Amino acid sequence: MNMKYKGEMRTITGNAAAAYGAMLCRPDVVALYPITPQTEVVEQLSRFSADGLLDAEMVEVEGENSAMNIVAAAAISGGRVFTASSSWGLAFMYDALLQTSGFRAPVVMVNVNREMPGILAVSTGQQDMIGTRDVGWIQIIAEDCQEILDLVIMAYRLAEDFDIQVPVMVNYDGFYLSYLSEGVNIPAREEVDVFLAPLKEQPERPKLVPGGPLGCGTHGIEKGFVELRYKHCAAMERAKNKFDEIDRLFGESFERSYGGQIEEYYMEDAEIALLASGSASGTVKKVIDSKRKHGLKIGLVKLRMFRPFPSERLSRAFRGKKAIGVIDRSICFGWDCGPIYMELRALSSEIGLIPMMSFIDGLANMDISIVHIERMIDSVYAASQGKPYQRVNWVILEE
């Protein structure tokens, strides 16, 4: 631990925390396009630029698709880049998201989670993150405003690592975190420089320069295409342990760490457990504290890395438990359950054939409340005792 570290404490929103995190990492190019509830991020970055705190090429685009194409091009040309979006904007980026990951361009962006098109809902939900889970990006999820800032800094260390070279998306709950004001410890820029300095010491990655030998976006042919896909998947698998290492190093530098791919809360002696992500995790911890005072051995695993899915660490964390509940702020069309639940079920052979329950809650700005979580825990406990249970639970509809 660097016991001399002292950051500046400010009360700022989650969106401002994302902007501060990006500014501290000194991006060369920032693409700007507003969409609720992300708009404050690009507004704050524009303010930093106007005040001389951010020395970057600020590109105001006509849409999100252009934003992603610009930062992808800048990244493969050797620049550090940043952009931000949400919901419909992320959907508009979709083809460019695929192209960016195919280029292995180390882009960093934030996605302020919001419900997706179909039924108009300018409200919280993780469906946009779920809709882009297979575009080849690393995806990580923040719980609070401090973690937003810290994850943006860690994202650059991960995306630009020579052994990874995969774009990273930092997700956080729109409306709940985007506009929430909390005390956030903001590091000195010089200390962030030191944390990111190892990126300058690694081998230089190939850059796209006019007239140079490097090409991007060419047609993949037969075995060559398969090899590139294989290497991309292998890099994402390497990102798991790399992220754990980066989180540990971040803790040594800034006296804050989060557990890497997952955070375990009272899991050592837990007999039953919940899996949650995002801003709801803090509420779950409060309920667990209360339940433990009454003798119930309940624990929480907070999912921080969604892509690649932290299968090895989740298997170890849940092995030996009697029942598990998974909280999803989105749905998995075609499986009648939550998507994170569906992915955890794929690990049943490693975890054990125990009761596993899907709780769908918090859609369209509905609260994942203390009362709801207490009901979830009671249901998981009953299932652990051999009582009949309902596999999929639409929590708000069961009130």
Question: What does the model show?
Answer:
- It is a single chain.
- Helix 15 links the parallel strand 14 (356-360) and strand 15 (392-394).
- Helix 1 (14-24) packs across helix 2 (39-50) and helix 1 (14-24) packs parallel to helix 7 (145-159).
- Helix content is 41%, strand content 18%.
- It is an alpha/beta fold.
- The chain folds into two domains: 8-254, Rossmann fold, CATH 3.40.50.970; 262-398, 3-Layer(aba) Sandwich (Rossmann fold).
- The N and C termini lie far apart (47 Å).
- The strands form three sheets. A seven-stranded mixed β-sheet has the order 3-2-4-5-7-6-12, with helices on both faces. Strands 9-11-10-13-14-15 form a six-stranded mixed β-sheet, sandwiched between helices.
- The chain has 15 helices and 15 strands.
- It is globular.
- The model has no long low-confidence stretch (mean pLDDT 95).
Quick structural overview:
This protein has helices at residues 14-24, 39-50, 64-76, 88-92, 94-102, 127-131, 145-159, 189-196, 198-201, 222-254, 280-293, 311-318, 339-345, 348-351, 370-384, and strands spanning 8-13, 29-32, 57-60, 81-85, 108-113, 138-141, 168-173, 181-186, 262-265, 272-276, 298-303, 305-307, 323-328, 356-360, 392-394. The chain has 399 residues and is α/β, with parallel strands linked by helices. β2 (29-32), α2 (39-50) and β3 form a beta-alpha-beta unit.
The largest pleated sheet is described as: 7 strands, mixed
Report the structural category. alpha/beta
How many domain modules? 2
CATH architecture title of the largest domain: 3-Layer(aba) Sandwich
CATH class of the largest domain: Alpha Beta
Report the helical percentage. Answer: 40-55%
Average pLDDT, to the nearest integer?
95
Measured by DSSP, the beta-strand proportion falls in 15-25%
CATH superfamily of the largest domain: Thiamin diphosphate (ThDP)-binding fold, Pyr/PP domains
Number of helices: 15
Low-confidence blocks of residues: none
The count of β-strands is 15
End-to-end Cα distance, whole Å, is 47 Å
Estimated radius of gyration = 21 Å
Strand order of the largest sheet: 3-2-4-5-7-6-12
3D shape: globular
User: Helix and strand succession?
Assistant: EHEHEHEHHEHEHEEHHHEEHEEHEHHEHE
Any idea of the CATH topology of the largest domain?
Rossmann fold
